[in-house]
Design brief:
The protein is α/β, with parallel strands linked by helices and 450 residues long. Helix content is 36%, strand content 13%. It has 14 helices and 13 strands. The radius of gyration is 22 Å and the shape is globular. The structure holds ligand F0G.
Length: 450
């Protein structure tokens, strides 16, 4: 059992229910995931302003880039002034964060934009953005005295948690939908020593089961409903703002699955603005796969959290990372989109596959879920939401090697959607079989050389 003694944390942070007519507060040491009074989502909120001015914080964080302190080598813990931990924290870290912000001229041209930035979260230690949240959630697990950390996952959370649990010497259980997780992600979790529990059903079933189990007190749940995950992921907004010289991009575009990441960007940019580190927030837009788009549907009908959320009972997409029909953080994501005048839209399987191939041609690459962003940006440019010379950042959430089966099928013209409809290999690049010996190789090479 977890040590949930209610000694209070002396830190200037609290867990706060986001429901306007509740707003209950809880100590950081309480191992809870939702409000104990009303079941609402929790935010971690600072109860005092940092001691430093905005420009002091900027120089402090910049100077840490050349420091050899382990915490400063992490792109998350480098921003520890805005994290709910004591300054002398010894985090469970794999030197996550500090990921590249690329310009990408082919992707920009594809979207008919002058330029486009790709923030590649796939460059994290386990190949996805989950690491920035997991370092914080597993550090908190250790503080709470948890023995067993657990999550439900479409694969990346699993891979990430497995790695951080191994670093922290904690037992780790992962609940995944049998047969629906990419082999690469599963392989990571197995290699890092997690116990992988495959169940019938989809991700939403896994999420329901783990939420139920978390009430028994045997495990510490680190899905993004856990507000400590969001704290880690919000630092990506800080890193991005710093990379852009503390200028806010006009648009930030993220894929939407369980909606933790869009929530985290909303929180990060909100805090940057409140701290005076930036002078406005970007428009935050969320892109979903058309077959797994309950949030987009909700947003088209209601622009605020005034109505009940209708889950998608049978989500379908080859972008398996975001094959989610009951996103737990929809209210937080809606807040981020609404307060920044962002959009929520859907893209088809074909649009995802083609955008992914174009990102690859920029020498960058990503997994299918990440490519929803570029596909969405192309649509938003076409409908006038984005204009040609605005600054736009797409967040690539996972590495191209996360799902090579998909990549190989696309390039060999054998990719089919779940309803069996064929996806056209518009930008296919199949291997060329050369069986005629050196002479034929010479001919092919000469042709390639032009
Ligand atoms: N992109 C990738 C590569 C993901 O793995 C996920 C979520 C998302 C986007 C969506 O982010 O859920 O915060 O809206 N993957 C989770 C998992 C669900 O279990 O790995 P979100």
């Amino acid at each position: 059992m977890m040590n949930t003694t209610h000694q209070s944390s002396a830190l200037p942070f609290k867990q706060h229910c986001i429901e306007p007519d509740c707003g209950s507060n809880f100590d950081l040491k309480e191992a809870i995931y939702v409000c104990r009074r009303c079941g609402g989502l929790l935010d971690i909120e600072a109860t005092a302003s940092p001691q430093n001015t905005a420009s002091e914080l900027q120089s402090l964080w910049r100077d840490r880039l050349t420091s050899t302190d382990d915490r400063d080598r992490s792109g998350v813990w480098r921003f520890r002034e805005v994290l709910p931990f004591a300054p002398q924290i010894d985090p469970v870290s794999l030197k996550e964060g500090n990921t590249p912000l690329y310009t990408a001229h082919r992707s920009a041209a594809y979207c008919e934009l002058e330029s486009l930035y790709l923030k590649h979260q796939g460059a994290n230690p386990t190949g996805s953005f989950k690491d920035t949240g997991m370092t914080v959630a597993v550090t908190q697990a250790r503080i709470l005295g948890a023995r067993l950390v657990a999550c439900a996952s479409t694969g990346n959370t699993a891979a990430s948690l497995a790695a951080y649990a191994a670093r922290a010497d904690l037992s780790c259980a992962i609940i995944v939908p049998a047969g629906q997780v990419s082999h690469a992600k599963l392989a990571q979790a197995l290699d890092y020593g997690a116990k992988v529990l495959e169940i019938d059903g989809n991700f939403d079933s896994c999420m329901r089961e783990i939420r139920e189990l978390s009430e028994d007190g045997f495990l510490y749940m680190v899905n993004s409903i856990n507000p400590f995950r969001i704290e880690g992921q919000k630092t990506v907004a800080f890193e991005l703002a710093e990379q852009l010289g503390w200028r806010t991009p006009d648009h930030l575009v993220v894929p939407g699955g369980n909606l933790g990441n869009s929530s985290a960007f909303g929180k990060g940019f909100r805090e940057l603005f409140k701290l005076g580190l930036i002078d406005r927030m970007p428009r935050i837009s969320v892109i979903q796969a058309a077959g797994a788009a309950p949030f987009a549907r909700y947003f088209q009908q209601h622009k605020n959290a005034s109505a009940d959320f209708i889950d998608e009972p049978n989500p379908r997409t080859l972008a398996s990372a975001i094959k989610i029909g009951a996103p737990v953080s929809w209210k937080k994501a809606l807040r981020a989109v609404a307060e920044t005048q962002g959009e929520v839209l859907t893209v088809t399987e074909q649009e995802i596959a083609d955008a992914k191939a174009i990102i690859g041609r920029d020498g960058i690459g990503c997994e299918p879920a990440s490519a929803t962003t570029v596909a969405g940006i192309k649509k938003m440019k076409a409908d006038g939401t984005i204009t040609v010379n605005e600054s736009v950042v797409a967040v690539l959430t996972g590495h191209v090697l996360k799902d090579t089966d998909y990549v190989n099928k696309y390039h060999t013209n054998s990719l089919a959607a779940e309803d069996k409809s064929r996806i056209v290999s518009t930008y296919g690049n199949a291997p060329i079989r050369v069986s005629g010996g050196l002479e034929e190789l010479r001919r092919v090479i000469a042709e390639l050389a032009g």
